[in-house]
What does this fold into?
Amino acid sequence: MPTPWKISLHGGHSGDFCEHGHDTLRVMLDAAVEYGYSTFGVTAHAPANGKKFLYEEEKTAGLTYVELERTFSSYVQTVNELATEFAGRLEVLRGAEVEVVPEASFAANAIKLKKTYSLDYLVGSVHWVDEIPFDTSQEDFDKAVANRGGLEPFLLRYYELLGEMIEQVKPEIVGHFDLPRLYSDGASEHETAGVNRAINDALQKAKTAGCILDLNVSALPKGLSSPYPAPWIVKQAMELGVPFSFGDDSHSSAQVGANIKGGRHYLIDQGVETITTLTHENSRLVKKQIPLH
Ligand SMILES: [Zn+2]
Ligand SMILES: [Zn+2]
It folds into this structure.
């Protein structure tokens, strides 16, 4: 039986539609039913807009932007079919995780993607600063930081860009809010007065745009001190009344549901009482609060 608070609105990156994913989408959805999810949002990576923005493994596989578009289109067809097939056992939401590159056109691209494919929703994520990827390796992270002249200026730009993305794309979900911790967890720069102001600005924008924050538990198996976002950000979000959903950020069936229980305990420990999901009601997608207890 599905458990109401067992939801993930960020994940389902499957091997049939993502070069760095494993298992088919169907196998992942079977795993989601098995875990007891009530809602599972599938958020395939949006196709890169330009050769420069392809993932390394996509370049290695010799893929082009045109092929990525075709893959995305067959993803949408498959997820549409599977959502119908799984109805009654699992609410499958059809989404995409969008990027902030190219900086000049990402928002228009994201909005167009959602419209073209009639997606249920978007996860808006920042994986690039100054069009340099920073979550792919320590080396890439160090490069992106050096380009800004240090960790604090890098973080200031990261949160500024996150705020711009939120204002312009208005994604239903803001992905892994403090992702730069991946390669700099514990650094004091994350909590300077300036960075905190930048965090608060981005949170204010999330509130205005009606976004939900992705309580992303993929940080836990990577050895980070907490899921994304960190406790001091959870506290600020709570004070502002910005809600959370869970995201397992699964890239294989083994990762489906992994660490969601840890995420629930983490939120409860911070004093968060409810999780917010997206669900279809009278064929409209609405937000719904669910108690964590
Ligand atoms: Zn991925
Ligand atoms: Zn991501």
Q: What stands out?
A: The chain has one domain: 7-291. The radius of gyration is 18 Å.
